[in-house]
Amino acid sequence: MLRDLKIIKDVLVEAWKIDEYTKILELQQQLSEMQNKALELEKENKELKDLFTIKENISFKNNAYYKWEDWPFCSRCWDKDKNLIRIIPLSIWDNYANCPDCKNHFNFTWKENDQMQVFSPDMSTYY
Q: CA distances (Å), 88 to each of 42, 72, 94, 98, 115, in order?
């Protein structure tokens, strides 16, 4: 379509049809703006689909979000910004963790440190 407009533009310029040429330029500008808007909407649509997929696959428990029973994610970062940021336990034997992004500090096991969690060797689950 853009190529056709250029051909028409060239014909009109050669025929000294300035008003028609100006109209073609306006149409080219409108077409370009519509193409840019379509790209923006496609990007936004993909972002919303990705967010929806994540929302379907996360659950909240023990003060953190979990995606497919994976390592816990910061509840504050998800609730506020919809960012899944993995929390980092203070140590392998600790029930408290920090978020590297927002610096939130919380107990993600609902147990006190005298009731320590024992993590599995691959660090993917805890008992």
A: 35, 9, 10, 5, 18
